User: Fold this.
Amino acid sequence: MRKILLVVLFLFMLSPLAFSAPGAVRCGKLLDVRSGQTLANQTVVFDASGTITSVGSSSSTKLPNGVTAIDLSNATCLPGLIDVHTHLTGEPTNNGYAGLGISVPRAAVTGVKNARLTLRAGFTTVRNVGVNGYTDVALRNGVDAGDVEGPRMRVSGPALGTTGGHCDNSLLPSEFHYKAEGVADGPWAARAKVRETVKYGADRIKICASGGVLSKGDQPGTPQYTPEEMQAIAEETHKLGRKVAAHAHGTQSIKDAIRAGIDSIEHSSLIDDEGITFWPSSAEPILSSTSTTTTTFSRRAPRPECCPSPLKKKRRSAISNVKISGTAIGPARNWPLAPIPASILTATARNNLARWSHEASRGHSGRHCQRRGSARLGRQDWCVRGRSLCRSDRCEL
Assistant:
């Protein structure tokens, strides 16, 4: 029988405000994503705020007075995962015309559910990019206040886009005179929209540089924001101390966004060799979704009639000097993490660690191992069979 490795994620990671006492975890093995090595018999110690204070050999690590370590000596531990492209307040079943019936309060309730599921699946930090009604701002604030169980969040609020573009809503007829709240045409209108979005709580800016696959009347490869508009958005965003992410499937849109100073490219589905050479190795990762729209529709709901056929991505066989961060769409429970070889898991974790290193200066350093208490220990077992990683309750043991 093939030997099965049980991987236990540090799922006792909740808001720092939920802590009341120090603690420790004794791991049979621990994945060190900095070195890429698996260390044996390690103990992780954290203080009452949830900040990790030490990681070392179990034989030599001294526990704080009164602390009894949680025994995971038969498992492998790894740091909390990071998902850099989420839409926690939405559901894949609510695309197209079905989404017109979802109110902003209802979306916020969905976000509360998905934040909990995402955290318990092992993701302790997410970047939420695109919502209606600033529901992600409310969700982030609820998590920070300890009112909602969920990961740390970096949020964009409504995504900025052009009239009739991917980030607009083109489902209603003309007599409604409706446009999405993030629509802004022209460089100066785009600057004003950046200021407005930051005013209402966004700590990231999301734009739609090209068409997409879940919107009516546009095509994924077609440019939408002009280079001048994107340059204005990037300048205004950076002036306000934020970073900007661009949804870009199309080849030209990817290049225009890079030239304009956009910080990250979401999807980059049709990137070509020239576009790859534009991207400096010191910049943030180009993002490539691990979940395609084909997966979304086949697993959760039929594809909406309003929208274009799912985009068939051109996979690049070799990309040099470009860091890739894996992304997902929707709550983590709906997106199996298979197949993920250990080498890729380690590399992705290392890239994410580098990407989020700036958080150390904002008071989040070391908070990768957190818990609410032994009564609420959210232990989550995963098993690796061959190259596939899945929840243990779904594995054929």
